[in-house]
Structures are given as structure tokens and as C-alpha cells.
Amino acid sequence: MSMKTLIAAMLLLVLYWPTCSQAAVDKGSPCMPYIGEHLSFNVGWEFINAGSATMDILPMATGWQVKTFARTNKVLDIFKKVRDYITAEGICVDGKMQSTLFDANLHERKYKAQKRTEFHWRKNQVTHTQHQITEYFDVPAGHLSVIDAFLAVRNLDLKAGQSLSVPIFDSRKRYEIQVNIMDKKEILKTPWGEKVRCIVVNPKLKTAGIFTNKGEMTLWMTDDERHIPIKLMAKIKFGRIFAHLTNYKSTPVSPPVAGVPPTPTVMPIKQP
């Protein structure tokens, strides 16, 4: 029952862009319109509730921070207690998203782990640290963490029948995920009581998501500019896992003010 966050199930991304050695960090977060959002999900196996997950998107001096928390409920705690905390950070580079950090603090029954992935995009390199051992990987700028990838796709103009090839770095691996936007659209009821039209997205995963194994998934998002995730379904060996949005809030947030510790500034590379 490994998990990366509910959002890991929603692995999608903006189209790949050129090498960023001459790119500039944008002030503010023009590529991230979702700062101030709070999302809550119930996660279950078929008709049995298994747990919950939350996501909060917060402002930072030069970008954003996403905090996610996932847990099993009291009944499932008896068999396999899960308490996972994940923090992801990113910035805008030339108007496009660039991940800078993916930090996971995992507690799944007797298994405990702290994993830290840092995206050194100016060097086209990623480091992964676990058990005080740091590994180095050659990863071109433009690869995103699974959380930032989910947020990035929400900002795309998704079209029925569209197929995307998605570059991701996750679990010590860089790879591309095939994502298909289905022709059909469906009407689903939202937590705020309204019935809305949703686009249907089908990503194929190579790593595990929250309460799921790797494999095929289906995601329903509102057919509007915000592409709010309403429902998720994943096939596993024994049945299906469902996640339903239970709460959504979007609060305008002002940029950090003086006196608040800022995110370390990425200095521009001097050209010869």
C-alpha cells in the first residue's frame, strides 16, 4: 500500500520546453494560478472507505509550496496504519513550472522513511537523499515532481482525443508517462452540490500512488479553466480504488510580506 500522494495518481504535465541554462526565474508565480487552494479527498476500495488525503497550495517568495497529508481511517489502522506527509516546492521559469523540491516523510505500519528529492534545474541534475545517502541523477530541466505535474496539467487547454507524453522524475527514475484525454465527457456532482461536466483523463503510471499500485488510472476533472479533480479510479489486483473530492476551497493569497523568511533565490548564471 505504497503512496506518493493522491495527486501522484494524476500524473500529467505541461509540454516539454528547451534547456533552461539561459532561462530566468519569474518573480511571483504567473504559471501557478492555484495558490490558496485546499482540497480534501475520501479514498476507498470499492464501497469500503479506506482513508483520506488533503492538499494545500501555499505562496512562497519566489514560487509555491504544496503540502499533502494522507492517512488510513481507524478501521484500516488496525491492519496497516498509514500517515504520509509530502511537501513539494516549485518556481516559474520563463512562464513554465519547474520543480525544486519533493520531500516525503512516510509512515506505513512498521515502514518509515524520509526521502528528499532536489531539482537542480540549472545544472540539469536531480539529487535524491535517503538514509543520509545522496545519489545524483542527470535530469534535463523541465522534469517535474508528481505533484507539480498534476498541477501543471490543470493549467493546460485540454482537448478531447488529445495524447500527451509526460516527462517525470520520481522514485529515482526519469521517464515519460502516456496520458490520453478521452473523447467522452461525464456529469458528476461536486462537493458544493452542483452538477458539472467533467473531462475524463487516462494516465498510465509507472510508480505507485496513494493507496494504489502502478498501472492504469482514470481521472475526472471539471471542464473549465481550473480543471478541479472531482473523482479518481485506479485498478488494482483485487478490485478498484476510488477517490472522491469532499471539500474544495480557493482563497486569494497575497505574496509573502517583509519579515517572512523567503525561499532561497536562484541566482542567474553569468554568461561568458
Summarize the structure in words.
The structure is a single chain. Mean pLDDT is 81; it is low at 1-22, 209-213 and 257-272. A hairpin with a 4-residue loop joins strand 6 and strand 7. It contains two helices and 14 strands, in the order E-E-E-H-E-E-E-E-E-H-E-E-E-E-E-E. The chain has one domain (6-14, 28-250). The termini are far apart. The longest helix has 9 residues, at 146-154. Strands 8-7-6-5-4-3-2-1-14-13-12-11-10-9 form a 14-stranded antiparallel β-sheet. The protein is mainly beta and 272 residues long. It is globular and about 45 Å long.
Tally of helical segments: 2
Mean pLDDT: 81
Distance between the termini: 50 Å
Order of helices and strands: EEEHEEEEEHEEEEEE
Percent strand: over 45%
User: Radius of gyration from the CA trace?
Assistant: 18 Å
Helix- and strand-based class?
mainly beta
What share of residues is helical? under 10%
- The overall strand count is 14
Shape: globular
- Largest sheet: number of strands, sense, barrel closure: 14 strands, antiparallel
> Stretches where pLDDT falls below 50 for ≥5 residues?
1-22, 209-213, 257-272
Strand order of the largest sheet: 8-7-6-5-4-3-2-1-14-13-12-11-10-9
Can you tell me the number of structural domains? 1
